[in-house]
Design goal:
Blueprint lengths: L5 E13 L11 E4 L2 E6 L1 H11 L10 E4 L2 H12 L5 H16 L3 E2 L2 H10 L7 E2 L3 E4 H13 L4 H6 L1 H11 L5 H6 L15 E3 L2 E3 L6 E7 L13 E19 H9 L9 H17 L6 H4 L7 E7 L23 H18 L6 E6 L12 E2 L3 H19 L1
Parallel strand pairs: 13-14
Antiparallel strand pairs: 1-11, 1-12, 2-3, 3-9, 4-7, 5-6, 8-11, 9-11, 10-11, 12-13
Helix pairs in contact: 1-10, 2-3, 2-5, 3-5, 3-7, 5-7, 9-10, 10-13
Length: 398
């Protein structure tokens, strides 16, 4: 019998004319599914929107920072602990400690360094050659270590125990966002973190044709002798009813968050907080591409969450045959009816009787989903209910 704990989130969300996620030509991203073109929003775009939502849901100490300018972040912490260090000294110490912890070269970008030398400017701050993801606790730990060896950091890090501690700090006490979305360290794969979350590309349940908005802008300083627009252009957009899906491996999340905890600390509490933050952030967040142009601030009309003891299941196959608008228009009502028929069929066929489900829905178009799960009245209630259910399953397993 499987003892896994898997959380599935499914959402149907109407998005009016918008350009949430652009491709290299500036057009909304698209994909062919079921033989017809669909609107698409990449998983990367929605992960970032979810991660940004965490700022309102979690304490900064529980989050991480992903940046190439990690030496500057660390140097600020080091100078707070050792005020006698100059900024240049702190940056040099930070670069040495980060290199010991991650195996990555931390040095001034070559082009910026050449420009500074040519123009007589100060040497730029050292940077990582790629985005580096470290938690606030890891940065605090590395700053403490660096401050202890700041007098002669190279000699300090030649001590194998100090070097091993630097690496250990970078690989323990992961933040919620690192535990959820993972981390890749190209130069030191042994401190990689496998993501506990999988996010699908959001896909329209129906065929979508791209459109273009031709616009003109008036120059406020133009006179009557200068008729016409001061600027013209086009913006590509589409509108869609999106099927959104994400799966969360609670077991892997518990593993990621449990690394580095003291013996008397249980990962159950941070796991529950991470699950609640992810459910809330994923459902309510929205990528901000062209948001000022289109103002497309919508929320899902229907959300289904399933807590399983086996592998995750996406219901995107319900829309392989694209939904067509009814006589009075609209795709949401038929999309809900498709899910209401498909979910019991796929779960009956594959014998999934271990699942607990919850439903959050809005409006008469979603009525066909009634009975697909325990209905909750609000996102707040949904988040709290799921958090309690996950904590209960973790407790039962101990």
């Amino acid at each position: 019998m499987s003892h896994r704990i898997i959380l599935d989130i499914h959402a149907l969300q109407n998005v009016p004319p918008s350009n949430l996620n652009r491709d290299d030509t500036g057009a909304p991203k698209s994909a062919v599914y079921g033989g017809v073109p669909r609107a698409r929003v990449s998983s990367q775009a929605w992960k970032r929107a979810t991660r940004r939502a965490f700022a309102d849901l979690l304490d900064p100490s529980e989050l991480g920072v992903r940046t190439r300018r990690v030496a500057e972040l660390l140097a600020t912490r080091i100078t707070a602990l050792s005020p006698s260090l100059t900024r240049e000294q702190a940056l040099s110490v930070a670069a040495e400690v980060l290199q010991a912890a991650t195996g990555s070269k931390i040095e001034p970008p070559q082009r910026k360094a050449q420009d500074a030398k040519k123009n007589g400017g100060p040497e730029p701050a050292p940077e990582a050659s790629y985005l580096m993801f470290l938690s606030a606790r890891q940065l605090d730990g590395l700053a403490d270590l660096a401050a202890r060896g700041a007098d002669d950091i190279k000699t300090f890090l030649k001590d194998k125990d100090n070097k091993a501690q630097a690496k250990r700090i970078a690989d323990t006490r992961h933040s919620v966002d690192i535990a959820l979305f993972g981390r890749m360290v190209a130069d030191s794969t042994d401190i990689n973190v496998d993501a506990a979350t999988q996010v699908a590309h959001a896909l329209s349940v129906h065929q979508v044709a791209p459109e273009s908005d031709y616009f003109t802008a008036v120059d406020d300083q133009s006179t009557d002798a200068e008729p016409g627009a001061g600027m013209i252009g086009t913006i590509d957009f589409n509108s869609a009813t999106l099927y959104r899906y994400a799966a969360l491996d609670i077991d892997l999340l518990e593993h990621n968050l449990g690394q580095g905890l003291d013996d008397d600390e249980s990962p159950a509490t941070p796991v529950r907080r991470a699950v609640e933050a992810f459910v809330d952030g994923f459902i309510a967040s929205l990528p901000t591409g062209k948001i000022n142009t289109f103002g497309n601030h919508t929320l899902p009309d229907a959300v289904i969450v399933k807590l399983r003891a086996a592998r995750p299941i996406s219901f995107v196959s319900a829309f392989e045959n694209p939904v067509t608008a009814g006589e009075s228009g609209g795709h949401l009502e038929e999309a809900c009816a498709r899910l209401a028929r498909y979910i019991p069929e796929i779960e009956r066929a594959y014998g999934d009787d271990t699942t607990t489900a919850w439903l959050l829905r809005v409006g008469p178009a979603t009525e066909t989903l009634t009975g697909i799960g325990t209905e909750v009245a609000s996102l707040k209630e949904l988040v709290a209910t799921i958090g309690a259910a996950v904590a209960d399953r973790l407790e039962q397993r101990r």
